[in-house]
């Protein structure tokens, strides 16, 4: 989720929501900031992180191979948006297991 908040505020919200784990990308000035929260029922490893993309591997106790989830928050600026898409393309070229890309793409398909 895009936070536009300082880490202290985000951590307080995470605890209120009952999540035990987190990864944060700090805001720059008064914009941006990403927070990813999850429960300890799964093992999530952060493989890479940038201002707009968090790429993870996820393991469940019941599944023997990892799955991958990329969390994406696209900026509105077209130049910045293209950089984010290039990052997602780079990530996708290395995926051989199950992979999901989730987020706010700030785009209209039709």
- Could you state the oligomeric state of the chains shown? single chain
- The end-to-end distance, rounded to whole angstroms, is 25 Å
Structural class per helix/strand content? alpha+beta
- The CATH superfamily is known as Endonuclease/exonuclease/phosphatase
CATH class: Alpha Beta
Order of helices and strands: HEEEEEHE
- Cα radius of gyration in angstroms: 15 Å
Shape: flat
Count of helices? 2
CATH architecture: 4-Layer Sandwich
Helix coverage percent: 10-25%
Strand content: 35-45%
β-strand number: 6
Gist of the model:
It comes from Acacia crassicarpa (northern wattle). With 110 residues, the protein is of the alpha+beta class. Helices cover 24% and strands 35% of the residues.
Can you put this structure into words, describing what you see?
- The protein has one domain: 4-Layer Sandwich (Deoxyribonuclease I, Chain A).
- By secondary structure, the chain is α+β, with helices and mostly antiparallel strands.
- The protein has two helices and six strands, in the order H-E-E-E-E-E-H-E.
- It has a four-stranded mixed sheet with strand order 3-4-5-6, covered by helices on one side.
